[in-house]
Amino acid sequence: MEIKNWVKGSCIGRGSFGKVNLAFDASNGQIFAVKSANSIATVDSLENEIRVLKSLNSPYVVTYLGDDVRFGERNLLMEYVPGGTVADAAAKSPMEEAEVRAYARRVALALRDAHAAGVVHCDVKARNVLAGANPDSAKLADFGSATRVVDGARAGGLRGTPLWMAPEVVRGEAPLPASDVWSLGCTVIEMATGGKAPWEVSMVEIGYGEGLPTVSAALSDVGKDFIEKCLRREGRERWTCEMLLEHPFLAVDLMVRGRWSPRTVIEAIFDDDDDEDEDGTELSSGSEWARDRIVELVGDGGVVWESEGWEVVRWGGEGDPIGNCLSGCCFCCGCECCCWEEEGMSGLEHEQVENGMVVRDLRVLSISEDLFVYHFFVLSCWIMLLPVWIMIWLFGHRLGTDFLKTVCSGFGFF
Ligand SMILES: Nc1ncnc2c1ncn2[C@@H]1O[C@H](COP(=O)(O)OP(=O)(O)OP(=O)(O)O)[C@@H](O)[C@H]1O
Q1: Which atom of ligand 1 is nearest to the CA of 128?
Q2: Which of 27-31, 123-127, 347-351 has the lowest mean pLDDT?
Q3: ipTM score here?
Q4: Domains plus CATH for the chain?
Q5: pLDDT of 258 higher than 50
């Protein structure tokens, strides 16, 4: 659905081609990311990215949500992928090879889909892979340099980031799907060496000599073999993404469900690794479950508290051993119920463990109504007795009865 009314939030990233902010759709609260550009130099790249993302439909690529022009800025609205970039993750703590393989697999899947659609990414590197809640929800982003295989006008010219460029791209030839495969090999080395491109080979050696990026010694033999398949000097000799997905480095699905823990609650909510499996089968996502559940809980008659596995954990009504306070008077007995009531928390609390989450509901009881009736009754009694006291006072004066005078003075009327 088209997003028309949205609000820009804080800045979550900056690149050479624009600024990325968090944003939300004012009509339904959906959170997304917006990349904005406002100069001629940057708008061109953003226009290209908009065109390419619009045409791609892959669960491994950041999803296009819309585009517009507002306040003199060209905007690309896209799915928000929490967790920062894979380069940041690799720089933070050394990555185990299993994690490197999981991210490499996601990038290979994204490239397979892009290449099938005739798109060459042209800037594959760990900084352009958004980590997601865990490696099996990472997404390939930043298609600003992307080109089409058939797009003669856009082909050629230096595109991408120098250290990750394939020899043919360094030489200024048209980038091919195989050029992305070279960059994927560089990205694997980068992830295995803490988010750095550690090779010191010059671009001239890569483009025109025999130079090759240095393979990290920490990688297993399978890893080194995978890189060798990517870093072949001749593009036509490199493996395609389809072939690489069959390579033992990527073929073994290490991403056992539940293996990766979300780093924050928001990551768990946004974690869309359940959205679709690799065969394209739709599965229910964590965020969908949470949304549906909230709608169900706040809806009328959506939940039957007496059944559906709910348990009463607090009950301020009759028969409650802790909270039952018949008078509803908070000042007399000081029971837990009263303190509870004073804090505005009186009521019926339900708790249910569902999908590993504790769900709570607090319902306000009619105790406050009872309290009102009680105070109203006491006040009425005092008002009804007032004429009686006045009559006694007058009567006492007129007759001069010492007894009544004594009684009245006892009550402080004189
Ligand atoms: N969809 C997104 N969800 C979350 N964060 C994002 C998203 N898109 C971009 N970012 C953040 O914004 C940063 C810059 O985005 P991006 O790389 O697309 O911009 P760029 O100007 O094209 O960068 P570059 O200089 O690498 O070409 C990213 O590194 C990332 O931290």
Answers
A1: 17
A2: 347-351
A3: 0.95
A4: 6-80+299-356 (3.30.200.20), 86-285 (1.10.510.10), 369-410 (no CATH)
A5: no
Is residue 141 in contact with ligand 1, taking CB distance under 6 Å?
yes
- Measured in residues, the chain has a length of 414
Answer whether 107 contacts ligand 1 (Cβ < 6 A). no
Question: Does position 84 have pLDDT exceeding 80, yes or no?
Answer: yes
| Separation between Cα atoms, residue 44 and residue 38, nearest integer Å | 10
- For a substitution probing ligand 1, which of 16, 35, 60 has the most ligand atoms within 8 Å of its CB? 35
Residue 323 pLDDT: 42
Q: Report d(CA 178, CA 148) in Å as an integer.
A: 13
pLDDT digits (tens, 9 = 90+) for 230-255: 999 999 999 999 999 999 999 865 54
Q: Which of 226-235, 307-316, 355-364, 381-390 has the lowest mean pLDDT?
A: 355-364
Beta-carbon count within 10 A of 280 CB: 7
Q: Does ligand 1 lie within 6 Å of residue 16's CB atom?
A: yes
pLDDT at 268: 46
